[in-house]
Predict the 3D structure of the following.
Amino acid sequence: MSLPFVDRSSSSLPLQFVGQSQWGAWLKAQSATRRAWIESLGISGSPGEVAVLPGDDGKASGAVLVIPNAPTLWDFGALGSKLPVATWRLEGETAPVPMTDVAVAIGLGVWKFERYRATKSKAGPRFVWPADADKKRATATIEAISMARTLITTPSSDMGPAELAAAAQGLAKAHKARVKVIVGDDLLKQNYPTIHAVGRASTRAPRLIDLTWGKAGHPKVTLVGKGVCFDTGGLDLKPATGMLMMKKDMGGAATVLAVASMIMATGLPVRLRVLIPAVENSVSGNAFRPMDVIRTRKGITVEIGNTDAEGRLILCDALHEGASEKPAMMVDCATLTGAARVALGPDLPALFCNDDKLAHALVAAGDAVTDPMWRMPLFPAYRRMLDSKVADINNVSPGAFGGAITAALYLKEFVPDDVPWAHFDMMAWNNTSRPGRPEGGEAQVARAIYRTIADRFGK
């Protein structure tokens, strides 16, 4: 995407930020003509209001944005849509939001998905890069999140396992990373049986995407993303309403690619590995069945209680492989359960973590960059719900209670306790458009994960 920023402009217009509590004093200091103009617009000093100020020539001479007394990043996200076409320079206090995050909000607010539209949107306003913004980090963040949004929003007809692999390969090429892709029956030969089982019914072959980057001596950071490019539910077929949004079931994969993009673009000193099992969970004569038993990469057997709980199946092989290198930090992202959405809603990803220090760091990072999450328990007593009478474990529990917890406990079986590991169960979608967050795919917690990695290993 084209960023809405320029390095300099001799004809830029001032965009002032005025806190809600300072609005009265600011308005009083304006000329009578300007006060009358602002009042005629119905601007009352409420947060989010934008007043475009006229000049003597009848053209815009500036603008003012009213912000809350304690603003967050997203309070600056609508500027790209609320201002007229011109070049603007930012003026005023934005604390506690750093100017870098203000730029991120503006950049993400102008993202649009128009691949299939005959008529594209016209160019919007431009902004001069603020002098105290970290241009490199802001650019990396905007480009990474926009990439993930586009991947998630693209229909499954154009975003299958091969296309997802191609996106990873394109990202790797841009940053001189290495990618290995294991496709189809080669998954069996190289011992990734659950990924193969879930994806074999599709005409589009399953695959494992394995990206590596960075120096061997740097701390190992491993990211794992669920890449179910479309989920019919398999033989436990979803109803039409449940299938409607399943193009976004690869949102975890897109999210870890966004984190990887930010890591590589900013050159964090880590040894990065990204593992994405990419499949389409389809229905055909060779689809895996309820009550089948599959041997996992770890060697333990899993009984299939439900073919619609396929995400944890493909993740378990990838997690076991990722953990085998004993990384200093491992994170997986997945659109895994409806139970997490029932518990926390669409905007608050559930965090499960086997390491308190890592969990606290992730939550703190999320608070710092306005990328929220909520920690949920890996309650060990619920492990009994995954007991199988014929195999080592079942992929689902028999009832509807604690579904997000039992899914996380299933994944925990494949991660040793000495590997600091976090699991995010997320929506990966904005149901409605809000400032900075247009309706469509969303890389939830990507900025928080990046911030945690940068804080831990980037100094």
